[in-house]
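LAB NOTEBOOK - FOLDING QUEUE
OPERATOR: T.R.
BATCH SIZE: 2
PURPOSE: Compare the predicted structure-token outputs for two unrelated chains run back to back under identical settings.
PRIORITY: normal
REVIEWER: second-year student, initials M.K.

ITEM 1
FIELD SEQUENCE / FIELD STRUCTURE:
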Amino acid sequence: MSVDAATVRRIAHLARIAVTEDEVPHLQGELNAMLAFVEQLSEVDVDGVEPMTSVTPMQMKKRADVVNDGEIADQVVANAPSTEDHFFLVPKVVE
């Protein structure tokens, strides 16, 4: 894939970057070099390679998926000016 000058201008416009006509050829070369590198990556054989999320193998800490109230409802509403049954009371806004 190759990027032409019109594509460079379009990318600059979409990114809201001011690019002068003198800068277009340089940016065109830079973008083409980046795309060439990405094309090289597609040639790498990754069959049998497990996807990685970290460089060190580790397990996520898991907790039981149970519904609870957090057991701190009194603390949550402690600073509220007005509450009822662990709910915040607010003035009615919509009729």
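ITEM 2
FIELD SEQUENCE / FIELD STRUCTURE:
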Amino acid sequence: MSRIGKRPIPIPDKVAVTIDGSTVKVKGPKGELSQVLPPEVVVVQENSSLLVNRRDDSRPARQRHGLSRTLVANMVKGVTEGFRKNMQIVGVGYRLQVTGNKLAITAGYSHPVEIDLPKGISVEVDQKAVPIANSKSQQGFNFGVIGIDKQAVGDVAALIRAVRPLEPYKGKGIRYATETLRLKAGKTGKK
């Protein structure tokens, strides 16, 4: 049995869970999420917790057991606390600006790159420059991608990072806050 799949999911008081066949809907103070689970698993609500069980011990059921439990647990956490992906933008003149549901990124191109933010996702930008780890002279800006759907938050963060990935010589670009970069040595020149 899956070690992750057999753990019960606690349901906080503010959260309402509706199970309709293979569809699980979770409603909480931050919003509402729904997920269609694979037919190999079944979700059962007992008192103030959810249990994800397999229908049988077939290989597909074993493979999807832990995944299904994690998806439901992330939905419960998302509607109560939400998810945040912390990021940094480093480089001279590199900026972020949020207007409505559009994010304009100025990252060394001749034009700002605009990204449409999906519904339920927001970007919070800290306008104060902070020193960057592993660098003596560089400063950057911290920002965070916030939402209730963990997958959507990760997708938008990856989309933003892809605008200007880190370059290994000066360390400029957009990075996750937890990402580390080993700078490469540049050319040594003629002697």
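REVIEWER COMMENT (ITEM 2): Helices lie at 59-80, 150-163.
FOLLOW-UP: none requested
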